[in-house]
Write a structure and sequence with these properties.
Strand content: 15-25%
Structural class: alpha/beta
Distance between the termini: 26 Å
Order of helices and strands: EHEHEHEHEHEEEHHHHEE
Number of strands: 10
Helix content: 40-55%
Strand order of the largest sheet: 2-1-3-4-5
Radius of gyration: 23 Å
Shape: elongated
Length: 225
Amino acid sequence: MTTILLVEDEITIADTLIYALETENFSVTHVTTAQQGLDYCKSQSPQLAVLDIGLPDFTGFDLCRRIREFSDLPILFLTARDSEIDQVLGLELGADDYVTKPFSPRTIVARIRAILRRGQTSQQNDLLSTDLLHHQEDQMCISCCGQPLNLTAHEYKLLATLLSQPGRVFTRDQLLENAWDDPGSAMDRTIDAHIKSLRAKLRQHSEDAAETIQTRRGLGYTLVL
């Protein structure tokens, strides 16, 4: 169960958030001071922290700064301050999101889920970068064993699709839809030919990399790390 640290000194707000989060199957640890929150982060391993900025001992900004000295814990600021300067400061300190009061508890839950999803994607990309394959989406480049692959546009889109969900079996039709602007202009055998070419290019760098693309007979293809 995902553990959320909530640092909030207003009990009414805290109770509302605890109820909303526990209803969504999160485990919540609630403290009312920044020091308690800091001590908890040092001794335990929450998956995310929700920090109020106006705390009785020192500010949520200061708490975030101290947490960042030893942890990359995802942080969401919760505050009555709605000025742009405060929002920019909070994000520059390393927060992942910023929500102003009044708010809907459902909004907080949705923001938390979005932050956690981004973290899972980042962890998956880190895994790929330390394993055989690494996808740099912004550069549209996939590397094998640290070396960029010389891929055609269709080969790149095919491999990127498989990398997006390791372990998932993609049918040929699904791969056509993802890798061809006009799927109707290509045939199932076109996918097979491009997969064969991809394996050959991966094999130039690593036999293990070539074997990550596996055929599911009668179903399609999957990438197994």
